[in-house]
Amino acid sequence: MSTNKRKGAANGVTRQEIMAVAAAREIRNSEVAFIGTGLPMVAAYLAKATHAPDAVLVFESGIVGAKPKELATGVGDLRLLVGCVKSTGLYYALSLLQGGFVDIGFLGAAEVDQYGNLNSTAIGDYRRPTVRLPGSGGANDIGSLARRLVIMVPHERRRLVPRVQYLTTPGFLDGPGARERAGLRGEGPTRVITDLAVLDFDPASKRMRLATVHPGVTVEEVEARTGFPLLRAPRVGETPLPSAGEVRLLRERIDPEGIYIGGKG
Amino acid sequence: MREKVMGLREAVALIKDGDTVAIGGHTLRRHPMALIHEIIRQGRRGLKLQGWNNGIDMDMLIGAGCVASVETSYIGISAFGLALNFRRACERGGLHVIEHSETTGLDMFRATVMGMSFFPTKTPLGSDLMRTNQHLTEITCPFTGEPFAAVRAARPDVAIIHAHTTDKYGNVQLDAQRWNDQSADVLIGKAARTTVVSVEQIVSDEEIYRNSLLTVLPRKFVTAVVEAPYGAHPCGCDARYDYDLEEVEKYYEASKSEGSFKAYLDATVRGVADHMEYLERIGVERLMRLTRTRVARP
Description:
The structure holds two protein chains of two kinds.
Chain A (H helix, E strand, L loop, with lengths): L14 H10 L7 E4 L3 H11 L6 E4 L3 E2 L21 E2 L2 H9 L5 E4 L3 E3 L4 E2 L2 E4 L2 E5 L6 H7 L2 E5 L7 E2 L16 H5 L6 E5 L3 E5 L6 E6 L5 H6 L6 E8 L5 H11 L11
Parallel strand pairs in A: 1-2, 1-5, 5-10, 6-11, 10-12, 14-15
Antiparallel strand pairs in A: 2-3, 3-4, 6-7, 8-9, 12-13, 13-14
Helix pairs in contact in A: 1-2, 2-7
Chain B lengths: L7 H5 L7 E4 L9 H9 L5 E4 L5 H8 L3 E6 L3 E2 L3 E2 L1 H9 L3 E4 L2 H12 L4 E4 L6 H5 L3 E5 L6 E6 L5 E9 L5 E2 L10 H8 L2 E9 L2 H6 L4 E3 L6 E4 L17 H10 L3 H13 L4 H8 L1 H9 L6
């Protein structure tokens, strides 16, 4: 295994590994988790291999209860069929979301704002964007209908913005009560996991709040890399490091090529 | 009973400039690429594309200058990132985008198939999708008074789909090892006025009767069928062959500039007379590799 890939935060653990483990811990046993590609897939596999063996992983292409042997490049990858309990179609997967059966979803985005709204559509003017992104895909659906949402993004000023330029996926919209007024179900975003910190949302104002910083990261660094005034939880702690067992699982079984977890710290 | 088998050229001639064309497939899976290549070869223009989650299919048509508008939840080249022809066309202005969530992108076809003029959903409420998509509007439940979004039923002129088998009458089947009958392709195929289906193989009617559970589109819904083995390449085709990451990467690199993309189209699509010549350029070794590395059966 190349040691270049393992330059990282502390104890030779990469920031991506810290993120994957933090995300895995959000999946409770027996929950239904809606999974996309990348770190969320790694986190979901890790959760199933550790504290949440009975979690049901759902991919939007229509695979329920996946127990795959390899990472897939996309949610429509036939590799995900291995060991699954139900192979169905998009209807069914989306109907699980629609019926309120999905407990947790994971999303990344080009922009996240202080109310946890996401933009994966366009940077700049929508009609003539500076950067045109792919669009919602299943993101809007997951953000609107999952009971809880976990957002995973690199911690960059240009990414954590006061207000998204296009609201692809609803977080808390413009504040307390807004989701309910709009007619959406689900609690909304509960965590934002970045390569610097784990954040949550202040229950009163629904604004993003710093909960824990990763080992080796300062609060000031987090604030400097956030594009809006960041609230702090009453006591900002340190993100727990992955256990030796979790690291072994990640590096030997789940992502041995370090595609998602092998980034530099 | 009317026989519906056509050659690729004849089937694609059913599509006219300016038509609304709905495309089946999802991410790197079973897009009707042989049909799309032929659309480009025949120089179609002004097409209004519809789909629910798209990628290389729509991006290639956009890059080839065939497209006036796209209506879908997503256009990206999975595993590589942005769809660069799509991106260029949007950033330049001129490509009209009708923005959906995956639910509404699917429900617009579901509505049509169920004989409804709209379909209710929660997903786009509160988002900018409502603001920028004229096919979405807010309604109120007549019983509970709660807000819903309504998505307008889609009415494509033509649907293009890639499937596994059909008989000559257009009874289209998917293999047992694939996504369920409820796949989006079935809705797309049923929602259009004209439905063109390319298949891996044309089989006998007895084969259809023997496996009637596998029929996804009975002939009533199908206008023309075309035999095009590896007709989804470089996308995968369920258990029959894997996606060709090497080709998708070549595509992605070529799409980084207009010039290199034109060269790619000239070499890969316009410079070949037909689908067989396209496959000959890919080569037997690569095709066999994609077919041999079929992933483990559940």
